[in-house]
Design a protein that fits this description.
alpha/beta, Oligo-1,6-glucosidase, domain 2, Immunoglobulin-like, 15 helices, 17% strand, globular, binds alpha-D-glucopyranose, binds calcium ion
């Protein structure tokens, strides 16, 4: 990539904080902004450059802050605007930037716009939302909510239905309304002026919705809205913008992230995150992951965005199960497999994202009773599937594997009571394995997953091949090894990962003039003779190969 096209966020690693579960500073059982400030030194030690902060705005918390009732105000459980300013200041001192979650596909039903809109059909805010008359006394059409049930909710007062793609307490905004869009630009500029470094845009591919034609994602006006947003908000600032786009394809990812189009820097694509469900079904309909498919999908994205656009790289976020439980081994090979998955991802081209707790190999929640799950999605799906006659054991098994609360249990700081997360009773149960899996232990062990992440982050800062080298998949049909190269001029990286626990041989042809160096590995004594390596369970190595003179 030409020097003048290089961006700061090409070389950065982002760390996502889910504030409610990160660190509680005042013993009420709920993580807060002050708690984040207290842990900034920890994040500095890990070496991350940017924090993506999940929503901290005023919210009735039906969907843990993704239902915002005031974009200009901090939720009192989390602190005050004063605390937020302090967080920005204290992060900056440590060279850490903050990007905010931008949730503008919908608001809370408690947002003053919706409270007004509900009052009457001719209320000035009515058209900020999407209202339709009943059809034959029923919902206007068969659109479904992503949290189960119809996407339409009846409002008795005005005898119309309003649209909600999430819970009925999250009414969808009407992006056709120019005045509404202008209010959003004002709000974004307020935060930009505060000194934030960018936005993660919640379900942004839905804003072009066309409910009358049953269109949710990728509506025809989506990209016009984003270009309009760019011009009116961050266009003149050097910010990081990343869109959450569940329905994106490699083709339309370029529409979002090709710099010439002036939209976003990158999107989160979720194609690889859907490989362990029955195709065409919901993610609760489980299927085993095939490594060859994972290689196909990730490689397709690497190739497609090599020249135009940019990839974001992630295994986890607050909506996804813990990767070490999902595709690693959270029992006897927890450490090895967590490091392997980290190496595999951080070796690729794009901007890596780490979700809180991933860096110490936190595992799924291990909740066995439906009462332990707090998430509205899980509760709704449970009712829906029970009513539809699914087997309860099957439902619970799918939650065990996929429920969002798997990622939301409190951060495990130490083996103190409540995992050192809070002096009081945590809002959600801590994972009982906190006595062994915790930050304190990780920091006391130079071979921990934490230090492996630290090393991967450091590598990215100094190794241009890791940032800009082109990707090339090797042995696409191999069912247990994921190996690829990154190539920049006469430098090459070889990333080799054994994805499973059985030993496997790997051969790489090489001229005897080449010099080979191991940059990172999850075993202390990995082999450097890459013509033939015997990979141990979950062994993962990055080699640097310099071509010598023939
Ligand atoms: C996104 C968020 C998720 C939320 C939903 C509705 O997918 O990541 O947590 O429930 O949007 O805002
Ligand atoms: Ca608190």
């Amino acid at each position: 990539m030409k020097e003048n096209q290089q961006k700061w966020w090409h070389k950065n690693v982002i760390y996502q904080i889910y504030p409610r579960s990160f660190y509680d500073s005042n013993g009420d059982g709920i993580g807060d902004i002050e708690g984040i400030i207290l842990k900034l030194d920890y994040l500095e030690k890990l070496g991350i450059d940017v924090i993506w902060l999940s929503p901290v705005y005023e919210s009735p918390n039906v969907d843990n802050g993704y239902d915002i009732s005031d974009y200009y105000c901090i939720l009192s459980e989390f602190g005050t605007m004063q605390n937020m300013n302090e967080l920005l200041l204290e992060s900056e001192k440590r060279g850490i930037k903050i990007i905010m979650d931008l949730v503008v596909n919908h608001t809370s039903d408690q947002h003053p716009w919706f409270v007004e809109a509900k009052k009457s059909k001719d209320n000035p805010n009515r058209d900020y939302y999407i209202w339709r008359d009943p059809v034959n006394g029923q919902e206007p059409n068969e659109l479904k909510s992503n949290f189960g049930g119809s996407a339409w909710e009846y409002d008795e007062n005005t005898n119309q239905y309003y649209l909600h793609f999430y819970s009925k307490q999250q009414p969808d905004l009407n992006w056709e309304n120019a005045e509404m869009r202008n209010s959003i630009w004002d709000m974004m500029n307020f935060w930009i002026d505060k000194g934030i470094s960018g936005f993660r845009m919640d379900v942004i591919d839905l804003i072009g919705k066309d409910p009358d034609h049953l269109i949710k994602e990728n509506g025809s006006k989506l990209h016009d809205y984003l270009q309009d947003m760019y011009r009116n908000t961050f266009g003149n600032h050097d910010l990081l913008t990343v869109g959450e786009t569940w329905g994106v394809t490699t083709e339309n990812a370029k529409l979002y992230s090709d710099p010439k189009r002036k939209e976003l820097n990158m999107v989160f694509q979720f194609e690889h995150m859907q490989l362990d469900k029955v195709p065409g079904k919901q993610r609760w309909d489980l299927r085993k992951l095939e490594l060859v498919e994972l290689k196909n999908v990730l490689s397709k994205w690497q190739y497609a965005l090599d020249q135009e656009g940019w990839n974001s790289l992630f295994w986890n976020n607050h909506d996804l199960p813990r990767i070490v439980s999902r595709w690693g081994n959270d029992r006897e090979y927890r450490v090895e497999s967590a490091k392997m998955l980290a190496t595999l991802l951080h070796g690729m081209k794009g901007t890596p994202y780490i979700y809180q707790g991933e860096e110490i190999g936190m595992t799924n929640a291990a909740f066995t009773s439906i009462e332990d799950y707090i998430d509205i999605e899980t509760q709704n799906i449970y009712k829906e599937r029970m009513a539809a006659g699914f087997n309860e054991e099957e439902i619970m098994k799918s939650f065990y594997m996929k429920a969002r609360d798997n990622a939301r249990t409190p951060m495990q700081w130490s083996d103190d009571k409540h995992a050192g997360f809070s002096e009081g009773k945590p809002w959600m149960k801590v994972n009982p394995n906190y006595t062994s899996i915790n930050v304190e232990n990780a920091l006391n062990d130079s071979n921990s997953i934490f230090f492996h992440y630290q090393q991967l982050i450091k590598l990215r800062k100094h190794n241009n091949t890791l940032v800009y080298g082109s990707y090339k998949l090797l042995d696409s049909e191999d069912k247990s090894i994921y190996a690829y190269e990154r190539i920049l001029k006469n430098k090459k990286l070889l990333i080799v990962c054994n994805f499973y626990e059985h030993e496997k041989e790997f051969c790489y042809p090489i001229t005897h003039h080449s010099e080979v160096e191991i940059l990172i590995s999850n075993y202390i004594d990995s082999g450097s003779d890459i013509k033939n390596i015997k990979l141990r369970p979950y062994e993962a190595i990055i080699y640097e190969i310099s071509e010598g003179e023939a």
